[in-house]
Amino acid sequence: MGYHVTQKMLFRHCDPAGIVFFPRYFEMVNDCLEAFFADALDWPWERLHGNGAVPTVQINTRFSAPSRQGEVLTLHLRLRAVGRTSLSYTLTADCHGEIRFETRATLVNVGPDGRPVPWPDAIRDKLTQRTEPNP
């Protein structure tokens, strides 16, 4: 039930040494989440952000190995827990099976005032159907 996207490591992702500058990984995580919301939930962020947002409230990342310009990473997103207003997930990025980084994070669904609000029923159902148990 996981979701995945691929991302080629571009010049813009790299520092002068030719390796990916770690903040760019967080942009890739965000890109993966944005694609997931559009593709799997049919709730693209341009519509979602009209009434609220889904900011990250907690994130923990382990960087295992560097990535270099030209390599292609596969980002694997797995939903772990759906709360009344929150979503916990893991995301692992690898290149040909070699783990480059792993992230555990939690999003919260917020309304226009920035306060947590329950997931819409249809979205909560889709999230729950795609949730996998914690390893």
Written account of the structure:
- This protein has 135 residues and is an alpha+beta fold.
- It contains three helices and five strands, in the order E-H-H-E-E-E-E-H.
- The protein has a five-stranded antiparallel beta sheet.
- The two termini are 14 Å apart.
- The model has no long low-confidence stretch (mean pLDDT 96).
Question: Topology, please?
Answer:
Layout: E1 3-8, H1 23-39, H2 45-48, E2 56-63, E3 72-82, E4 86-95, E5 98-108, H3 121-129
Antiparallel strand pairs: 1-3, 2-5, 3-4, 4-5
Essential attributes:
single chain, 135 residues, alpha+beta, five-stranded antiparallel β-sheet, 5 strands, globular
Give a quick rundown of the structure.
Helices cover 22% and strands 34% of the residues. The chain is an alpha+beta fold.
Q: Helical element count?
A: 3
Into which percentage range does the β-strand content fall?
25-35%
Q: Biggest β-sheet: count, sense, barrel? A: 5 strands, antiparallel
Oligomeric state, counting identical vs distinct chains: single chain
Q: How many runs of DSSP E, i.e. beta strands?
A: 5
The secondary-structure element order is EHHEEEEH
Q: What's the overall geometry?
A: globular
- Identify low-pLDDT runs: none
Mean pLDDT: 96
End-to-end CA span = 14 Å
Q: Cα-atom Rg, whole angstroms?
A: 15 Å
Helix content: 10-25%
Content-based structural category: alpha+beta
Strand order of the largest sheet: 1-3-4-5-2
